[in-house]
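Hi P.,

Sorry for the delay on this. The queue was packed all week, but I finally got your sequence through. Input first:
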Amino acid sequence: MQLFTRRQVSRLSGGSFKWRAGTATLAGSLMFGFAGSTPALYAQAVSVNGGSIQGTITDPSGGVLPGAAVVIKSTDTGTTRNLTTDSAGFYSDGPLNPGPYAVTITLNGFQTLTVQTVVRTGTATSGNFKLTVGSTAETMQVNAGQLQVNTDQPGVSDVITREQIEALPINGRNFLDIAQLQPGVILQSGSTFDPTKAGYSAISVGGVSGRTTRILLDGQDITDETVGTTIMNVDEGAVDEFQLNRSTQDVSGEVTSTGQVLVATRSGTNAIHGEAFYNFQDNAVGFARTTGGFDAPFQRNQFGGSAGGPIIKDKFFFFGNIERIKQDQEASATTSPTFAGVHGLPDLLCHWKS
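Then the structure:
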């Protein structure tokens, strides 16, 4: 005999509001940023809350070019960084928010070079460029493309972009589901670690328990140190992209024996953008069918939305996101035949197996 008990879950799955001024951000449930210049770092400028652009400027023969002016401009927000190559022709800037950038290099006696490139979370984007002899009044436009070979970092990692998150079907809007596209990665339910972590997820990498996988949100470690998973659920609509490190993590990240996930949240830009959604599921999808062949009542409603845009063009931006899940379901329990003999048992809760 199958006995069904009713349970209703209604929770605000999360919400965030993010302000960004200039180019620096601080993540959290309420996020603020302050404008300011960042000095050039003559080392690998990758961090856990963004990416970087770094490289060496050379002439057509391969000789280094010190003193070249480098301007890095965000295509989305219009913010700029001004750098100068050192005596070895090297420059580096980071952390930078993920997204498209234009790198412009100027030096007397050479044509001005403008390169369109893309910065990814936790990734050192190559900025190795050659200048052509000519007048600075002449400008050469180059598109580096979104797919580039990273020769600066030895780790095994992949970046899941916003386009992939939006295009791939995700049951329950848990963005960590997409991490399973990578080899050796399995999503683990938090309830397998502790009953209090039902509704939370962990990522197992290479067969190792997901308890030790580190998950960082805009540089802040949100891993539950006690039982694993995370201390908060991150809305899918608030995630811009994330990087999954499967081995040989970058030294800028947390110390861990297994994988590491670096999550970057979305931000406002010079363009107004937003979305609203409503998802509905019930037991008709089939997964709620029990072993005995009965359809356990199930209904899930998910709804929410996000919006972002400029407050002051090229200077001050906002982004807000909120999501809610309301779920009604009934869990089944097998009882003994003696229990079925109790008079007055509601017919709606008792199903006999023929």
